[in-house]
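Hey, sorry to bother you again with one of my protein questions. A protein chain has come my way and I'm curious about its shape. I'm sending you its amino acid sequence along with the backbone structure tokens. I owe you a coffee for this, so here goes:
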Amino acid sequence: MPPINGSENPPGVGEEKPDEELAHARVTLDGLASALKADTAAAFAEPRLRAMALVKHKDAGAWARCKTVLQKAKVSVKEVENAFAKYQI
């Protein structure tokens, strides 16, 4: 499975340079699959919730990969979306 940040190409190749906040969110979510294997509640940690809220609004591809990771770990995407709804993006 490709990383959530979608960085199959080196930075700057074939895409615009993402803003730092979005880049940080992608890095935060790269470890989501392994974190969920240890504890499914890891999806609800504040840094991950903020990162998911940001990628949902700014990076459809990263959000799609994130949803796949959540679904494979049997974590409700709807519950995660409700949890990060409090973060204004």
Remarks:
- The mean pLDDT is 86.
- The first helix runs from residue 20 to 30.
- The helical segments are 20-30, 32-38, 46-58, 60-72, 77-84.
